Amino acid sequence: MSETPVKQQSSTAYYGQAIASFAVALGATAIGIYSLDVSGWIRAFLAISVLYLTTSAFTLAKVIRDKQEAGQLVSRVDQARLEKILAEHDPFKPVA
User: Residues in domain YiaAB two helix (predicted)?
Assistant: First the structure.
């Protein structure tokens, strides 16, 4: 059975860009909420809404990633079973 390492699909630069983009978007939203000409209760509500949206997005991304990784694991197990069957098969063995 061959052990194929899981390949990293994104580079360090892509990872850094994603973090920077998230930080800029969250910071810009926070500045926008802070500079609104509304009462503190409305600002607090908008800030809590943004935090809830952010945590929901992280949860959704994690669920999607976990589902994809589970699919890859099942695929690797199936591949290992197939390799084992092929390795044990003798095409010259007479059929009984």
Answer: 14-66
Identify whether the C-beta of residue 30 lies closer than 8 Å to the C-beta of residue 47. yes
Joined together, the tokens standing for residue 81 give: 């079973």
Q: Distance of alpha carbon 49 from its chain centroid, rounded?
A: 23
Instruction: Write the burial class of residue 46 (CB in 10 Å: 0-12 exposed, 13-18 middle, 19+ buried).
Output: middle
Query: How high is the pLDDT of residue 44?
Result: 95
Give the tens place of pLDDT for each residue, 76-85: 777 778 888 8
Nearest to 49 by CA among 63, 31, 29, 35: 29
